[in-house]
Amino acid sequence: MFETLKPSPPDKIIELLEMFRADPRTEKLDLGVGVYKDANGKTPVMRAVKAAEKRLLDTQDSKSYVGILGDLEFVKLLGELALGSSVPADRIAGAQTPGGTGAIRQILELIKRSNPAATVWYSDPTWPNHPAMLAHLGIPSRTYRYFDAATGGVDFAAMMADLVAMKPGDVLLLHGCCHNPTGANLTLEQWAEVTDFVVKAGVVPFIDLAYQGFGDGLEADAAGVRHMAAAVPEMLLAVSCSKNFGLYRDRVGAAIAISETAEKSAITKANLASLSRLNFSFPPDHGAKVVALILSDPALKADWQAELESMRAGMLELRKGLANELRRATNSDRFDFVGTHRGMFSRLGLSPEQVVKLREDFGIYAVGDSRINIAGLPAQGLGKLAAAIASVES
Ligand code: PLP
Ligand code: TYF
User: Fold this and answer.
1) What is the pLDDT of residues 346-363, one digit of tens each?
2) What range(s) does the Aminotransferase class I/classII large domain occupy (predicted)?
């Protein structure tokens, strides 16, 4: 049977991580995979997570199955974290999923089940798993222009010009904040404009929210999402707790669907449950319980927010520092966008050859499209990185 299988290309980001691990140089710098690292290069277990895990260890008295939609308290609390009070609770249905990836996958299945003719529109560029999952599921898809390589910002005019070709019922996939891979984000005014378009065109927004709290703060990062949610009849939302709770390997996320009415929401909910059953039956429990404990306990929540905020502040410091060093090293302001980008990533605009040179000559690992993970940078590496970029550019 297996002799019929064709070679399957590995995920480029994961492949890069393996190359980094195999590199014997001690001075190497991993700016590839999107994992937060502190000043010591460690990806910590957050304090509130440790405390909640201890509590769970002491109090959990059964490992029996959770419900098919997971822990509904978790789903409700995570929905509130993302959506605030923008939508009445009875229009929101959600399912706990294995990570944000699991949420995206379940939502794509829901789209396919609801409207097989819908085309899903995603930004060029986007996180590679988006097009990969769309292709795997055979869902029609198209891209819209997003990034202006010349300025490092969003090419909003081009984006809106491309969206005009969307048909009613098509799905518009957006990054909620901290766009991966570019780091360039819509302003709140632009979110409002996209919202007006979505309502008029009768298209369904699908927001991938994987970095809430990593950009401008927990509330600010959700502002565009909430504005849109309040205005549209239907919306889809994939939430990941991998980054903002540091729960990467525990696989924690939620697929959330906003329906037009409470009656329709009950049907959406039953479909989410059926899709979960068809894929994995019950979602993994541990990480979601930890998140629910944190979000429902004021002291744990305050400590989680404080730690998240210090992670965010550290990334912003690194951005400012790198932008300054790049000014100095290149004697120009053309990399100033690094300071205005938000989240873990910035796309530098280097050629694939220059990215290879960074790796081979300097041991600096960036993704092939010249995406760097800001959080992978130790403060003492800023000068080295800026000098290396200036060198491969000249
Ligand atoms: N969406 C985007 C844009 C991402 O960058 C990621 C990766 O971290 C995810 C979703 C999902 O991550 P996970 O499945 O680890 O929660
Ligand atoms: O873009 C990144 O680096 C993160 C981590 O298949 C990641 O989103 C990368 C690839 C992948 C899953 C997660």
Assistant:
1) 999 999 999 999 999 999
2) 27-389
Tell whether ligand 1 has an atom less than 6 A from the beta carbon of residue 127: yes
Nearest to 348 by CA among 332, 364, 366, 331: 366
Measured from CB, residues less than 6 Å from any atom of ligand 2 are: 11, 13-14, 33-34, 127, 129, 180
Return the residue matching tokens 């609801």.
114
Cα(137)–Cα(51) distance, rounded to whole angstroms?
Answer: 40
Average pLDDT of the chain, as a whole number: 97
Q: How far is the CA of 56 from the centre of ligand 1 (A)?
A: 26
Question: Which residues are catalytically annotated?
Answer: 127, 208, 210, 243
pTM for the model stands at 0.97
Residues forming a β-bridge with 240: 253
Q: What is the CATH number of the domain that holds 27?
A: 3.90.1150.10
142 occurs within a structural domain = yes
How many structural domains are present in the chain?
2
Q: Atom of ligand 2 at shortest distance to CA of 367?
A: 3
pLDDT by residue (tens digit) across 212-235?
999 999 999 999 999 999 999 999
Q: Beta strands of 199-333 (E only): which ranges? A: 204-209, 235-240, 253-258
Domain shared by 236 and 352, yes or no: no
- Tell me, using a 6 A CB cutoff, whether residue 180 lines ligand 1: yes
Q: How many whole angstroms separate alpha carbon 226 and alpha carbon 223?
A: 5
Whether residues 190 and 329 share a domain: the answer is no
Same domain membership, residue 122 and residue 163? yes
Q: CATH number of the domain at 154, please.
A: 3.40.640.10
Q: Whose alpha carbon is nearest atom 4 of ligand 1?
A: 210
Q: Which domain-ending residue is among 261, 296, 331?
A: 296
| Alpha carbon of residue 273 to chain centroid | 23
Q: Are residues 131 and 249 in the same domain?
A: yes
Pocket test for ligand 1, best of 240, 291, 347, 367 (most atoms within 8 A of CB): 240
Ligand nearest to the CA of 107: 1
Under 8 Å between Cβ of 122 and 135:
no
Protein residue with its CA nearest to atom 6 in ligand 1: 210
- Whose CA is closest to atom 4 on ligand 2? 34
Domain that holds residue 271: 65-296
Same domain, 348 and 282: no
* d(C-alpha 264, C-alpha 110), whole Å: 14
